[in-house]
Write a structure and sequence with these properties.
15 strands, globular, alpha+beta, eight-stranded mixed sheet, 8 helices
């Protein structure tokens, strides 16, 4: 059986920790100071731990408890919630092996559950089939919907606060991304990674190597490590160990395109080599579907041209879903 020598290349360094509480300050200097820290992290590899986020600990604990309860159900119960059956807007349960994030590898060894903004069937964006729609809720978990909706709303507010900090980090007005934040596409995704034997095929990962698609991702982890962040300077991987009271934040393709790769949308992956079940809850902020992401002129060096063609948020997401779901 093959070993996994790649795991021995993981660095023991950690990602920076940024306290974002200052973004809520009435003092511009406090907010700007956080922006300076964000810039340093985003130009390094686009990942950092977020502390001072203000999400109540009891809400976080409840989210993880409900996530475990959902995935602990029999497969028959989960399949009744399958997104391909009951949802036209990427909502509901995703079976094991449903996604392949890294081309040329085996399907990801994980199962998931998608939650988005709650809208009625007769809402105009829902009728247009634009990633909006009613969620799929498990009837046998009575606390699930309320807990997830509360966390979802808290994450929308945190994302938009940090986007204000991103604007400051680029020496832009704090409201620069306001039109991007209007009627945004946002996704809360619950994930379960079963234990992976260390002698399993090296090309099957919990989540294959990928970059995220939107502007920001906030990852809530349980106590089991698994997230690995690529460090292109040394050609190795940083293990993003879970740190109590923090969320792991990374920027996605949208911010890389905006900044002409000044800010890094960095490859990452998941290996669960712990011998235990691993649960995580990422929140993806992708923005207004009609918004055209194009290079911010002040991010172009003298004589430099944009590396990416302008594209709407919706078109980019459609392309990426087709790529990873085949």
């Amino acid at each position: 059986m093959s070993s996994l020598p790649i795991v021995r290349r993981i660095k023991d360094t950690t990602l920076p920790i940024i306290n974002v509480k200052g973004l809520s300050s009435s003092r511009f200097d406090d907010r700007k100071m956080v922006g300076v820290a964000i810039r340093a992290a985003c130009t390094e590899n686009g990942f950092f731990y977020c502390s001072g986020h203000g999400i109540p600990l009891d809400l976080i604990d409840s989210v993880m408890t409900q996530t475990r309860a959902l995935f602990d159900q029999p497969i028959e119960a989960k399949m009744k919630l399958e997104m391909s059956v009951d949802s036209n807007s990427n909502r509901g349960y995703e079976r094991f092996g449903g996604q392949t994030l890294e081309a040329g590898t085996l399907p990801d060894s994980k199962e998931g559950y998608y939650i988005g903004r709650e809208l009625p069937e007769d809402d105009k964006p829902v009728k247009a089939g634009r990633f909006y729609g009613p969620n799929v809720w498990p009837e046998n978990l009575p606390l699930f919907k309320n807990i997830m909706c509360n966390y979802y709303q808290a994450m929308v507010e945190l994302s938009e606060l940090v986007l204000n900090g991103i604007a400051l980090s680029l020496d832009l007005p704090e409201d620069y991304f306001d039109s991007y934040m209007r009627e945004p596409l946002t996704t809360l995704r619950l994930l379960h990674y079963p234990p992976k034997p260390t002698d399993e095929a090296a090309n099957q990962k919990g989540a294959g190597e990928h970059t995220d698609w939107g502007a920001l991702t906030f990852l809530l982890q349980d106590a089991v490590a698994g997230l690995q962040v690529y460090d292109d300077r040394g050609g190795d991987w940083i293990l993003a160990e879970p740190l109590p009271g923090t969320l792991v934040v990374n920027i996605g393709d949208a911010l890389a395109h905006w900044t002409n790769d000044l800010y890094k949308s960095t490859k990452h992956r998941v290996y669960n080599l712990s011998g235990r079940e691993r649960y995580s809850v990422p929140f993806f902020y992708s923005g207004n579907p009609d918004y055209v992401v194009k290079c911010i002129p002040t991010c172009l060096a003298s004589g430099e041209t944009p590396r990416y063609a302008p594209i709407t948020v919706e078109d980019h997401l459609v392309n990426m879903y087709k790529k990873t779901y085949g």
